[in-house]
Amino acid sequence: MPRILITLGDPAGIGPEIIDLALASGHLPAGFDFEILGDPRAGTPGKPDARSAKAALEALEEAVERLKTDTADAVVTGPVSKERLQAIGFPFPGQTEFFAAAFGVSDYGMLLTGDTLCVGLATIHEPLAKVPTLLTPECILRIGLLTAAFLARRGHSHPRIAVAGLNPHAGEHGAFGDEESRVILPAITQLNRHLPGVFSGPAVPDAIFREAARGDYDAVIAMYHDQGLIPLKLLDFDTAVNVTLGLPKPRTSPDHGTAFALAGKGHANPASMLAAIRLACELARG
Questions:
Q1: Distance separating alpha carbons of residues 188 and 194, to the nearest angstrom
Q2: β-strand pairing of 199-203 with 161-164
Q3: Cα–Cα distance measured from residue 77 to residue 57, given in angstroms and rounded to the nearest whole number
Q4: Within its chain, how far is the Cα of 164 from the centroid?
Q5: Long-range contacts for 38-42 (Cβ within 8 Å, ≥24 apart)?
């Protein structure tokens, strides 16, 4: 049977709780082996420290080795504290970049998908002030093609993907910025050369997510992290899953953080973890 690894994340957070609840829910597909990586005793609920961060990192490193040696078919990663990991020498802004580096993959991307929205990110964990300089036709082309491949894998043979603008009103013909004409539109032209008729835009950012939510589009390509994640978490917080695109094996994660303030109090909601496990199963089987 396909084996799905599940890392605990930082054991001082809600990771151990939501994993136990998800596995006991009775709502996971049959025909899979689930294996938890990480030591729940390495952290005190609600009190993260270097020891709990180290345990989170060791679980991630073990997951990589298992995937590389073909003793596992997918990994679901529990929430970690980026601040705590970086304090012990973790050089990456997030788990997405960690897995891409571990597998030597440069053509990768972050996508979040829930019951209502599916959002690919042209830039990921970057300061907002840097986004205009980091945004290139190449990075939009990359996430666009990766998103289309993800949708095709899930049964959308001819997906409808909107590409958001960067500026208010999508720049309004240069009145509020020229990234739409200078960067985004050329990327859309290239995307439609690869996949004719799939991509449209640049779309007005404050309207396109409403259109996608009512079913006009299968996905939206957002230009930066919060542009895409604010509407997604507003509508799909309990069902959204973070997916790293471009890896040789599936990696998913719940769309929320460690929630240290909730840890150990019995209030953690396992819905996003459950969705992440179910999607990992779907992708591993596919």
A1: 10
A2: parallel
A3: 11
A4: 18
A5: 38/7, 38/8, 38/9, 38/11, 38/78, 39/8, 39/11, 40/8, 40/11, 40/16, 41/11, 42/11
How many CA atoms does the CB half-sphere of 35 hold within 13 Å? 17
Report whether 50 contacts 85 (CB < 8 A): no
Contact 117, 232 (CB under 8 A): yes
106-122: per-residue pLDDT in tens?
A: 999 999 999 999 999 99
Give the distance from CA 155 to its chain's centroid: 19
Handedness of CA 63, 34, 81, 50 (dihedral sign): negative
Measured distance CA(231)–CA(187) in Å, rounded = 23
- Return the structure tokens found at 180: 């739409």
DSSP 12: T
Burial 96-133 (b: 16+ CB within 10 A, else e): bbbbbebbeeeebbbbbbbebbbbbbbbbeeeeeebbe
pLDDT digits (tens, 9 = 90+) for 166-194: 999 998 888 889 999 999 999 999 999 99
Taking the C-alpha atoms of residue 4 and residue 33, their distance in angstroms, rounded to an integer, is 6
